Input
Amino acid sequence: MLKFVGFFYLLYSAIVFIVLMVMVCPFILIAMASFRAKPARQISFLFLKIWAWSFSFLTFLWFVSSSGKDIDTSKSYIYVGNHSSYLDAIAIVVCIPQPFSPLGKIEMLKVPIFGWIYKRMVVVIDRSSRESRDQSLAVLRENLVNGQSILLFPEGTINKTSETLRPFFDGAFRLAIETQTPLIPFAILNSKAHLPQGNPFALKPGKVKMIFSKPISVNGLTLDDLPALKDQVYHEILQQLKK
Output
């Protein structure tokens, strides 16, 4: 019986996801075609917010944060956090209070409809290609210089292990030091419990909570400080997850 209910809830949620994406897609495409990069991204982000909030309301999956309101949205940041479920993509759109450029994997371009928006809103990376990795980091660096916040999952991909948090890659912390941009660590506490990796039929409604830590300044840091900075952020996120 539970599997039967799970199947129909998953089907319903997938239909809601696609229908809402179809509805906002034209507005995002028009914004991208009609405005320069920064205002186009701000307008597109507004429609993504509408999409994510509507999905949350209609599927009874509530994405909440009690600390996002304390972020100074007049500044740019590098957001870094854990990644354990496909629901994280919706959580970050709902909870992060300012437009941002996320780094995302190239495989998502294959998703119908969603892939169109993904291509225009996300800095795509092919991790199997050194050239693609270098080019993606260059684009993110340029966005930061232009005052645009960015987001990276420093674990590199969805955590499919039994570990609370996988080891971090250097990219986010190198960018932070090179551009002297503060980092904001975040922890998505229970998205995996609502959509376990490898078992989509276990999708269930409820509250997904996201916690932001205070910004971490990198003023005056050099690349020699990168290991210590990465370790500091890692343990900050790990502490939030273990709470």
